[in-house]
């Protein structure tokens, strides 16, 4: 699984735990819902700005999102 897929899986997991729909996350982050779907499927190569927008919308520090992503990677081993 590449970094885009791992990041997308992490964003999806956080979003679901916060009971947010893709539509609501898109609204909060000011990104399109189809873009959010692409991120979650690992189809998007995100800019730093969009990583920040998603992290802010999820009320998390960027570093925490990446820490969770790396934790998921270690759990797959």
From TrEMBL:
Keywords: DNA-binding, Transcription, Transcription regulation. This is BglII control element. Pfam families: HTH_3. It comes from the Bacteria. One of its GO terms (molecular function) is DNA-binding transcription factor activity. Coiled coil: none annotated. The keyword Transcription regulation applies. Gene3D superfamilies: lambda repressor-like DNA-binding domains. GO terms for cellular component: cytosol. Residues 11-65 form the HTH cro/C1-type domain. PANTHER family: HTH-TYPE TRANSCRIPTIONAL REGULATOR, HTH-TYPE TRANSCRIPTIONAL REGULATOR SUTR. The keyword Transcription applies.
